[in-house]
């Protein structure tokens, strides 16, 4: 597992320089709404997990790995673990950018990076949906699925917020859900999100293992 994770990092080490630039752009572009850090943490796995997958498919290393005496469940687990590993590396790069910006006293209001349960939930849902497709069809055939999911997420969240704002007071279902969450403590809601994220991720992993075990190269 460790060697597989290290492999995914080393094959794209130059990308980390690009990651610093990305974190700087997000810090500047979203300095007014406190989203720079969150977006950096969310987007990092999108870039690095997919780049590692594209290298594997391009160099046909997937076939080599599948022929080695490594359980396919371990190969699948590595991808699931790498999502949160790259999210942590994204957080570190964002902290570096903020440190440099503050040291140089740049006129940018950097957002404070906090790892919210909703961010963990978002990562678990997003990659919990995408990775089974990846293990079924490979990187090339699923890159458009990922593209649609990525932009659908941002526009979908915006649209959902608009729908709640517009119809929330007239919808009994939405009002019941809003009331339910409002009556719970923040700690309780956070625990609910973390548990749901773990369940979704574990279910997705089991589906991916089943798919990958039956896949032929």
TrEMBL record:
Superkingdom of origin organism: Bacteria
Protein name: ABC-2 transporter permease
Origin species: Thermoanaerobacterium aotearoense SCUT27
Transmembrane regions: 16-32, 80-106, 118-135, 147-168, 188-207
UniProt keyword annotations, A-Z: Membrane, Transmembrane, Transmembrane helix
């Amino acid at each position: 597992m460790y060697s597989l994770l290290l492999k995914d990092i080393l094959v794209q080490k130059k990308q980390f320089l690009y990651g610093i630039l990305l974190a700087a752009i997000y810090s500047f572009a979203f300095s007014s709404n406190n989203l720079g850090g969150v977006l950096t943490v969310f987007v990092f796995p999108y870039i690095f997990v997919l780049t590692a997958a594209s290298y594997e498919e391009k160099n046909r290393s997937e076939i080599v790995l599948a022929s080695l005496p490594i359980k396919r469940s371990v190969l699948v687990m590595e991808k699931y673990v790498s999502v949160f590993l790259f999210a942590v590396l994204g957080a570190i790069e964002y902290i570096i950018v903020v440190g440099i910006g503050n040291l140089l006293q740049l006129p940018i209001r950097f957002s404070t990076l906090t790892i919210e349960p909703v961010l963990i939930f978002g990562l678990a849902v997003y990659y919990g949906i995408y990775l089974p497709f990846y293990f079924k069809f490979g990187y090339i055939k699923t890159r458009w699925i990922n593209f649609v999911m990525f932009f659908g997420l941002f526009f979908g969240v915006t649209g959902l917020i608009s729908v709640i704002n517009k119809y929330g007071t007239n919808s009994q279902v939405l009002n019941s859900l809003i009331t339910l969450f409002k009556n719970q403590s923040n700690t309780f809601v956070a625990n609910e999100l973390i548990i749901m994220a773990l369940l979704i991720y574990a279910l997705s992993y089991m589906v991916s293992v089943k798919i990958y075990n039956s896949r032929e190269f």
